[in-house]
Amino acid sequence: MTTFLTSLGIYGPIVGCFLILIESIVPVLPISVFITLNFYAFGKLIGFIISYVLTVIGCMIAFYMSKRIFKNRIEYLKEKYKKKKIIKLLDSFSNLKTNNIAVILAFPFTPAFLVNIVAGVSDITPRKYLVCLLVSKPFLVYFWGYLGVTFIDAFSHPIYFVKIIVMVLIAYILSNLVNKKFNID
After folding, report:
1. What angle in degrees, to the nearest 10, is found between the helix axes of 98-106 and 126-153?
2. Residue 100: closest CA among 183, 12, 3, 159
3. Which residue in 57, 59, 62, 111 has its CB near the most CB atoms, within 10 A?
4. With contact defined as beta carbons under 8 Å apart, do 62 and 23 qualify?
5. Number of other CB atoms surrounding residue 61 within 10 Å
6. In the chain, what is the straight-line distance between the N-terminal and C-terminal CA atoms, in Å?
7. Is 38 exposed, middle or buried (0-12, 13-18, 19+ CB in 10 A)?
8. pTM, whole model, 2 decimals?
9. pLDDT tens, 119-139?
10. Alpha helix segments (H runs only) across 30-125
């Protein structure tokens, strides 16, 4: 895949951008693979920039899509059924501070697509959510880029597998702690 991306010349970064953008909207696609491909094909700096910018844009597109598609439906359900769980979830998410949302989004195992939807139907302003994304996504992009490149290099240097396992375990444990603290699960 990296050979394919680099063989495209100037169109390679466009394909890399497109993959990251689509992943931000379609949650079943693996962001880790696409970020790794960008890092490996275009280098750490260009791969990081491509992945970071397009992840933020993709998350904002998902935010606006959920606001446009689901917001009226959620408001209708809140009024008709007085669902306390929905109201409580949206109110608590809307009342989170910017740094709390940024921390939630920074961890690699947080379901970002779900956070995009909840943010879209909550009362969070687009500006606040954009700030959260701009602050949190560099950590996520660097984590997956470094981990992916290290994984590929681990085939020639087996000690890198130990680094990968330690990084994934730490990120997973921290993600679970953050998810429990903010009642995301």
Report:
1. 20
2. 183
3. 59
4. no
5. 14
6. 35
7. buried
8. 0.74
9. 888 888 888 888 888 888 888
10. 31-81, 84-94, 98-106, 112-121
| Other CB atoms within 10 A of residue 73 CB | 10
One-character DSSP codes across 139-183: HHHHHHHHHHHHHHHTTT-TTHHHHHHHHHHHHHHHHHHHHHHTT
Under DSSP, the state recorded for 107 is S
Query: Can you tell me the distance from the alpha carbon of 14 to that of 132, in angstroms, rounded to the nearest whole number?
Result: 25
Tokens at 39, concatenated: 């890092």
Closest CA to 112 of 13, 7, 32: 32
Q: Please state the rounded mean pLDDT for residues 44-55.
A: 87
The dihedral sign for the CA sequence 108, 14, 24, 3: negative
Amino acid at 89: L
Exposure of 182 by Cβ count < 10 A (0-12 exposed, 13-18 middle, 19+ buried)? middle
Q: How far does CA 112 lie from the centroid of its chain?
A: 5
**Which are the contacts of 102, defined by CB distance < 8 A and separation ≥ 6?**
131, 132, 135, 136
